[in-house]
Amino acid sequence: MAADRRIVIENCAIATVDAKDTEYASGYLVLAGNRIESLGAGTAPEGLENVVRRIDASGHLATPGLVNTHHHFYQWITRGLATDHNLFDWLVALYPTWARIDEPMVRAAAQGSLAMMARGGVTTAMDHHYVFPRDSGDLSGAIIRAAQDMGVRFTLARGSMDRSEKDGGLPPDFAVETLDDALAATEETVRRYHDASFDAMTQIAVAPCSPFSVSTELLRQGAESARRLGVRLHTHGSETVEEEKFCHELFGMGPTDYFESTGWLGEDVWMAHCVHMNDSDIAAFARTGTGVAHCPSSNARLAAGIARVPDMLAAGVPVGLGVDGTASNESGELHTELRNALLVNRLGAHREAALNARQALRLGTHGGARVLGRAGEIGSLEPGKLADVVLWRMDTLAHASIADPVAALVLGAAAPVTASFVNGRQIVEDGRLLTADEDAIARSTRAEARRLARIAARG
């Protein structure tokens, strides 16, 4: 939409998630092009020119779009498998199947993952893709094109693995890359697709998979490459007690100390899970500004444990929310993670004081933007920021009797999304995607899941 064309949204509750947690019981937003021009209490200013649409959002809550900080899109076509496993056993069970993915499978899986998130209020998505079987096609390009077609803001964390079974790792030998090939392919992806501009729709991060699937040299050289190229770094860290044991046995130190020894702590780094962190680990993350993608549903599904999110936040660690791969979070939705983050953390040491509804919403919006290095552009509703806005319907049976709309959103049933805007463009209306055919995506993902299952069964 041209910068001088305006959309006016009125009569809704607004949770801005700005630095002061400003809220309006009834207010307005003016979107001009791809930016938020103004917002406040009451009705929009009179005399606005070039208004192309007015939305009466009575009964709705407006929030920043949700920001997903960790995902594995390809797993959409292996949902519902290995449902009673811990992480290492789950990986051993599924790697032989994942090692047979190809470009059509990955594109269909990306479409399914993106569609489910977008229709549930996600406006910024990310994918940590690290499985690149030989001769499988242009997997990174397929994922990026799916995000572009869906109309969501997107970060591809170009992953890699070079420690296979023969080296003591978990992936099959034919599913990993060599050190040189992984570094070269990652750098090529950055140079081809990364957009560093304020309103970028596509960004790239350097993302070796995990301590138990990559070599020390891939971590070290990957960090050097990312900083030379000016992009962020992402990996898995401290997810399970088994990982802690693995790092001590192989490297003589815990995961956080190992990451620091390879250049993997800093304001340009974020790690997924971080469940098993001691006080020293949390202090190191806080000191260096290293971020965390908290994935409560996946952590529970794989019995990994409860991350110390309240302690991280108290120490100043940047924390956002992640869906994680849909083979360990079959719902594939981020708005359910708002609720699960609050509830799961209240089972921990801090009990009812662990998190409240507004802290949970902040994790899913501003927290995620901060983790992705984009807090100046997205994650809160403020003049000058990008027009990534969601209208949640709060006047139906599911929520109408809850007076506090933020509590209703976080603690209540999944709220319907009446409208979702990304970069000023509406991509969801009344819970349905405007940019893709959901039924066609369902058919293609089912077909590709069955094809993968047949190939994997043949071995």
UniProtKB/TrEMBL annotation:
List GO molecular-function terms, semicolon-separated. 8-oxoguanine deaminase activity
UniProt keywords, alphabetically: Hydrolase
The membrane-spanning stretches of this chain are: none
The record ties this protein, via InterPro entries, to: Amidohydro-rel, Metal-dep_hydrolase_composite, Metal_Hydrolase, MTA/SAH_deaminase
The record ties this protein, via Gene3D superfamilies, to:
Metal-dependent hydrolases, Urease, subunit C, domain 1
Q: Which PANTHER family match?
A: AMIDOHYDROLASE-RELATED DOMAIN-CONTAINING PROTEIN, AMINOHYDROLASE SSNA-RELATED
Q: Show the NCBIfam families listed in the entry.
A: PRK08203.1
Give the protein's recorded name.
8-oxoguanine deaminase
